[in-house]
Write a structure and sequence with these properties.
single chain; 321 residues; alpha/beta; Rossmann fold; 2 domains; 7-stranded mixed β-sheet; 7 strands; RsmH
Length: 321
């Protein structure tokens, strides 16, 4: 199956990157290479490093970027390892970083990957990196009821999390839950019919929760943001596209903290904690898809782009307020 992925907020991201023809840029979620292709078109003597953990994405992006092979290096890894990837390539600092978080259209539209609740006969997989042994099936069948409740509540933000977890545990006592269809039926049984009629697909939030837990998506994002900002040259920018509130909240909070890290009491006239700003938040409000993009790609409706610019030798954090 062809790897398809609509590059959400493409023009807006490229505009915000402020690409230098001789700069070094990292696409930490390479996917099908849509954003990277546009970056390459702006480079002359510059370089692009593409990182992705999905073998299908690596193959697709390699083909898509073949005309720019002289300026592209593709590495199969998680963007959590970005600093090590760059170090191995002899690169200390870069001029821009992009992350397009979430699931690609290819992953959603390929039933055997097990990401989508719209298929009724797919294995419960959801691994972004197939080298990983743990799958969604393992979570569904092996997690305790309390653990299932926690992830569905916290990562799926589903108000019926407790009942869904209870129904899953009851069902697997009869036989292991193997397919998306079996899990869908269990979730339907846990949510009132009147809610299902008006609230969209009943499985959407649970699948999101399992996927996030399995791939450690929020942990990786939370633990890597500071490092990525430190990898930027003076004036370099990091552009992050999120698709749900949990991701966006992490990015927004981190960017704000890196702009104003001061921990001094508000009544102190000057900063004495010594923590200095690493730069500035470029997007006070997130950049959203245009009406045209929303019409062309319904999956972009929840996308938000936030941008941070590195400023070396910045003002003390109190002054940055």
């Amino acid at each position: 199956m062809e790897f398809k992925h609509y590059s959400v907020l493409l023009n807006e991201t490229i505009e915000q990157l402020h690409i230098r023809p001789d700069g070094i840029y990292v696409d930490g979620t390479l996917g099908g290479g849509g954003h990277s292709l546009e970056i390459c078109r702006h480079l002359t003597t510059g370089r692009l490093i593409g990182i992705d953990q999905d073998a299908d994405a690596i193959a697709a992006a390699t083909e898509r970027l073949k005309d720019y092979a002289d300026r592209v290096t593709i590495v199969r890894s998680n963007y959590a390892q970005m600093a090590d990837v760059l170090k191995n390539l002899g690169i200390e600092k870069v001029d821009g970083i992009i992350l397009d978080l979430g699931v690609s259209s290819f992953q959603l539209d390929t039933p055997e990957r097990g990401f989508t609740y719209r298929s009724e006969d797919a294995p419960l997989d959801m691994r972004m990196d197939k080298r990983q042994r743990l799958t969604a099936r393992d979570i569904v069948n092996d997690y305790s009821e309390a653990e299932l409740f926690r992830i569905i509540r916290d990562y799926g933000e589903d108000r019926f999390a407790k009942n869904i977890a209870k129904h899953i545990v009851q069902a697997r006592k009869e036989k292991p839950i193997e397919t998306t269809g079996e899990l869908n039926a269990i979730i339907r049984g846990a949510i009132p019919m009147k809610v299902q009629v008006t609230g969209g697909h009943p499985s959407k939030r649970t699948y999101q929760a399992i996927r996030i837990e399995l791939n450690h998506e929020l942990d990786v994002l939370r633990d890597t943001l500071d490092t990525m900002i430190d990898l930027l040259n003076d004036g370099g920018r990091i552009c992050i596209i999120t698709f749900h509130s949990l991701e966006d909240r992490i990015v927004k909070s981190n960017f704000k903290k890196n702009e104003n890290p001061c921990t001094c009491p508000s009544n102190f006239p000057v900063c004495v904690c010594g923590k200095k700003s690493k730069g500035r938040v470029v997007t006070r409000k997130p950049v959203l898809p245009s009406e045209k993009e929303l019409e062309e790609n319904s999956r972009s409706k929840s996308a938000k782009l936030r941008v941070f610019e590195r400023v070396e030798d910045g003002m003390e954090s109190r002054e940055a307020l």
